[in-house]
């Protein structure tokens, strides 16, 4: 069964967030289960593309309105990622360093999708499933079924996975001419709220859509940045499948990015070695409970609540917590977090930026991970922290509900709170500080966390079952 995963990100080629982790691991596990899954993504000018070798397997020109764009399909030579990796290179448009935020982002991702379709169409390939991820490849289902150019592929089943329903990639009707040879009686399938909405179009046109956790599937009809009604009417073809993690990349026993490897048997010593390294680097006290936050500094993640919540805790003479933040995003939030650094040296530090290796060390060395998210489709941070015996403190939303049980409940191992508020964060930090004093219980809970199985094995199977239900020829 030949599956093409289409995505803007894929670890380790180019990563901005969890989308990359999923697209960099799910196909690998699908291949281990006997499928033939490949990833197709834009060619960016990054370390991975500069340092690896590729074959040019196809080249042609596609038309973006009246503009002729030359493109190449490059294939990574060794398949060392556990899947075939194809990169769409469009000189001058896609071969830049960053994944997002260019003023012509719309043209970039439309051209990426057209080049992909031209390639499989002209090279006479017949994929069993085309699996699109997020709005950057959201126009593919519409084009497959309603553009004359791709008629040969019109029976190809499509699956669309929503990693984040807040971002739609919407644009105005004046750009309709970017979509070639389409059936103009079907343009309603592109529309939402008076514009062309790639996320909405994908949900309407795909054969099945999935969300990255079961709870998020239901939440989309309550909160999806204006698409609530759409999700409500399309819910019959929606499936919630929780993300897995790549247990080879995220393994405290073998991780080369941390200060000392450990297993659940050597957890106390192992975590302390990593905590010591972390505290030395950031001038913190390794004997105090260490709380962390890793992620994008945006409202969605509740990062705006952190400065006040952290300061309240640091000012409380009864509490001993120290904090280390890793992230970047909103400049106001970055500034507020940097300001605390001057005020509380020795108890608080922050690293503004993106650092994959530091993230691994923090998951290994911190005691507690804060996730006060307002929206969390799945969340991978809590899964990584559990794997490294770091207790997640999470707001009860989306995938956090599906993956974290409060330690006060039967079989629990984390801390859950209801509101994305300073008060709820503080209350949870206090609970964690009290737990930190109970070393025996903390130790038991850490072992319980590390024994949990969030590998892809189960979820990859659910995707395979879904594919098989769509393509009975397999
Ligand atoms: P998102 O909504 O950002 O995709 P996820 O929890 O699904 O959130 O995934 C976030 C991923 O990005 C995790 O692998 C996390 O470790 C990583 N990450 C986020 N911010 C940073 C950062 N500043 N430095 C290193 N890794 C980061």
From TrEMBL:
Stretches of the chain forming a coiled coil according to its record: none
Protein role: Synthesizes alpha-1,4-glucan chains using ADP-glucose.
Starch synthase catalytic domain segment(s): 2-228
MF annotations from Gene Ontology: alpha-1,4-glucan glucosyltransferase (ADP-glucose donor) activity
HAMAP family named among the record's database cross-references: Glycogen_synth
Protein name: Glycogen synthase
Lineage, broadest ranks: Bacteria, Pseudomonadati, Bacteroidota, Sphingobacteriia, Sphingobacteriales
Substrates-to-products reaction catalysed: [(1->4)-alpha-D-glucosyl](n) + ADP-alpha-D-glucose = [(1->4)-alpha-D-glucosyl](n+1) + ADP + H(+)
Glycosyl transferase family domain ranges (all copies): 280-418
Family matches, as Pfam families: Glyco_transf_5, Glycos_transf_1
EC number(s) given by UniProt: 2.4.1.21
Superkingdom classification of source: Bacteria
Pathway as given in its UniProt record: Glycan biosynthesis; glycogen biosynthesis
Positions of ADP-alpha-D-glucose binding: 15
Keywords: Glycogen biosynthesis, Glycosyltransferase, Transferase
Family classification: Belongs to the glycosyltransferase 1 family. Bacterial/plant glycogen synthase subfamily.
PANTHER family per record: ALPHA AMYLASE DOMAIN-CONTAINING PROTEIN, GRANULE-BOUND STARCH SYNTHASE 1, CHLOROPLASTIC/AMYLOPLASTIC
UniProt gene name: glgA
